[in-house]
């Protein structure tokens, strides 16, 4: 008799359509590994995909989620990268191993898990071995599950593309998962970190985590404060999480020939900025679509070498997946994790 597992699915768009179903536990086919899920980390993207599909043609029943940690239970024939008992984490876009991102000018795309590829909100998954990397040894399952999207996005923006050096001024917008990874990674490279937030409590927590300055963006002009803090030098690197017209504000705050990593769309998918500042400051404005597998492997090594601890705001049971999504919607300090 086939073993059964629990799996969250939707048959139509809308988080209200989430249901916990029973499915047979998959088998590891040639080239695949069967992984028992131990933790799932939620991203704002998961909420958008559930609500509107983000322009993708989803295959129903659709399983959400891209970020997981787990333990290899079995391997199919031909598998060489893993063996039973290995702790692993998922790769956000398993088609992007290294180098240039796949896609064309006409059809840029991302074959991410929980989108054009299957999701991970399941007690077991059987995926090709290339869809996983070894988990860091120094963090627990929930913490490890936060690396595949939020962690590696901040790493790719700052380290792979930004190459920070000691003394750089880095602005981190907000206190979500990417932002707090950015804070910790920037500090590990000797940068001076400025955090903006609409919550005084979250700013205090960010300062306790190591931020050098906290700016209340509701009651202060955050651009003016950045310029004051940096003696008009501006920010060498800004993690732009808001999107929309906020990109124009980031251009005001960035240093001459500084860098803005465009990551989030919380304030709108249509970004805008004044052309004169682009021309006068000559900044690098870099879109960050998460990262390749090699960068994730680099981050895993850095976590073990530096002792970086992902910030987990709350942990939910697998049966409480809907409650975890609601917490994400309210706004988290760091990451929301579902333990399986």
From TrEMBL:
This is NAD(P)-dependent alcohol dehydrogenase. Coiled coil: none annotated. SUPFAM superfamilies: GroES-like (SSF50129), NAD(P)-binding Rossmann-fold domains (SSF51735). GO terms for molecular function: oxidoreductase activity. InterPro entries: ADH-like_C, ADH-like_N, ER, GroES-like_sf, NAD(P)-bd_dom_sf, Zinc_ADH-like. Residues 14-338 form the Enoyl reductase (ER) domain. It comes from the Bacteria.
